[in-house]
Amino acid sequence: MQQNKMNLSDDLVVLLNRLALNGDIRMAGHVLHAYVIRFWKIERDVATRFVIRYFEKHYPKQLQRYVKKRSQRN
Fold this sequence. Notes:
By secondary structure, the chain is mainly alpha-helical. The chain has helices at residues 2-5, 10-21, 25-40, 44-58, 60-73.
């Protein structure tokens, strides 16, 4: 039962894929963060770390682009 709870739904994975590959990784991060907090009942700090690791693993190029743009704005 616990393992099923920790899997992302197929619809969510498709949405995250579309958002990340279309250059809107920030919105994908918000969606995943909200999902993890609401459905997995995880604290915000833990959810934030999970989201970062998820994008480092599955979308490293898009995450690097986002971080680079963000650092140039500051």
